[in-house]
Amino acid sequence: MIEVLVLDYKVVQAFNIARNLRSHGFDAISVNDFMQLLLQLFNRHIDVVVLDLEFSGLEDVLAVKQIRSLKNLQAIGIIIVTSNCELSHRLELIASGADVCLSKPVDVLELSAYINNIYRRINFRESPISPSQWHFDRSEWRLVTPSGTSLALSHLEVSLMDMLVKSLGKPVKRRDIIALGFGLNPLSYDSRRLDSIVSRLRRKMHNAYPLSQPIKVVHSVGYIFTEAIRSN
Q1: Which of 97, 132, 195, 216 could pair with 68 as two cysteines, CB 3.0-4.6 Å apart?
Q2: Is the pLDDT of residue 71 over 70?
Q3: Both 181 and 71 in a single domain?
Q4: CB atoms closer than 10 angstroms to residue 110
Q5: Tens digit of pLDDT for each residue in 118-176?
């Protein structure tokens, strides 16, 4: 079944696109916030995104560009449905990555035809995509977010990540990070320096990928990495 995600900012929906698509055999869900749309894109498989927009402007173009820029989402279908869309703006949206721009009121049969066509195009050209996850490249001193953003790590951040990844899903004691990871004496090491290193790395990760924070504090113990990650 084709998975469709609809972004509709309206609170009251006289014409509910997701409901109409479900009645035509699609697995369609709707959200009314762009951040919720991104969360859905990162946490479940979506074939086509439908942006149901009441007004058109620069924000529409930026939204399409942001979706298209995300790693593993570059082949996803993007359909724009809008009330007031001048030709110049429709062309700008298509240049930014939208597959189709439709004017309201949209006919659900026409919309279904476009979704089916985009789905066939995606599955003809693209091989299956593995689920998004973090990637730790120790040799390159890099951490890559699920969205594909690459973060440069310091020497101590690499040592910290190496400890967390080796004990994935299990808490790593602070003294083990200091002794085994950093090669320092826990008795003489100021533990506030470790707190600063962890805080700086978590802030760096949040700025690049605000949808989750996999490094958790385990009080009175240490730290744990809680999400899927591959390493080399």
Answers
A1: 97
A2: no
A3: no
A4: 11
A5: 888 877 654 444 457 899 999 999 999 988 889 999 999 999 999 999 999 899 999 99
pLDDT tens readout for residues 162-183? 999 999 989 999 999 999 999 9
Please indicate, yes or no, whether residues 104 and 186 belong to a single structural domain of this protein.
no
For residues 213 and 134, the answer to whether their CB atoms sit within 8 Å is: no
Residues 223, 144, single domain; the answer is yes
Residues 112 and 7 in one domain: yes
The two most distant CA atoms of the chain are separated, in Å, by: 71
Q: What is the mean pLDDT of the chain?
A: 85
**Secondary structure (H, E, C), the chain:** CCEEEEEECCCCCCCCHHHHHHCCCCEEEEECCHHHHHHHHHHCCCCEEEEEECCCCHHHHHHHHHHHHCCCCCCCEEEEEECCCCHHHHHHHHHHCCCEEEECCCCHHHHHHHHHHHHHHHHHHCCCCCCCCEEEECCCCEEECCCCCEEECCHHHHHHHHHHHHCCCCCEEHHHHHHHHCCCCCCCCCHHHHHHHHHHHHHHHHHHCCCCCCEEEECCCEEEECCCEEEC
- Output the pTM of the full model: 0.53
